[in-house]
Amino acid sequence: MKTFLNGLGLILPTALVLYILIWILKTTENFFGEVILFVLPKQYYITGLGLIAGIMIVFLVGLLLKFWIVQKIRDFFETLIDKMPLVNTLYGAIKDFFNFFSNLKNKENDIVVLVSLGALDAKIMGFITSRDLERFKFLDMEEPVVVYFQMSYQVGGYSLFIPKKNITFIDIKTEDALGFIMTAGISSSRKYDKKENKNEQS
């Protein structure tokens, strides 16, 4: 039985990752393939052209965003979206989400924190997502920051306003901390050492 479970423990996560990867590739191929068929006769279409076109378009968009005029066009469309109820909320949330997690490697030691749960004598790990809270002066807090607490094996989480004096920074790479939390501590056996007990210096 143990041998069977060991094999299952390898096959299931590998199969899930492959399934998600294949789904992404097939979706990209089908979408951009349909676009290509508008201008290219079907007999000349080769499987994989849609995927190649998708990758090239994403790369090209990223390259064009380095130019001032393209940035202005993007800002113009984002201004239009901001005026659309519900659409602006969804667009902004998705954009902010991807921006935050796409920059994990650049945020290794400055956002992972522990927050004490006094009554339980416990600590919970979270991520500082916002420090600039001038518009929330009404909170009547001393130097508040927003800390995001990811739920294990879930997409969602919670964001709380917490005074800086109540958080402790820990020496863990953000992506490692996220993986640790997402799997309820099961995915990693690394030893994480807490930094010296100190608060963030302004």
Automatic annotation (TrEMBL):
InterPro entries: COV1-like. Pfam families: DUF502. Keywords: Membrane, Transmembrane, Transmembrane helix. It comes from the Bacteria. The chain crosses the membrane at residues 7-25, 45-65. PANTHER family: COV-LIKE PROTEIN 1, PROTEIN LIKE COV 2. This is DUF502 domain-containing protein.
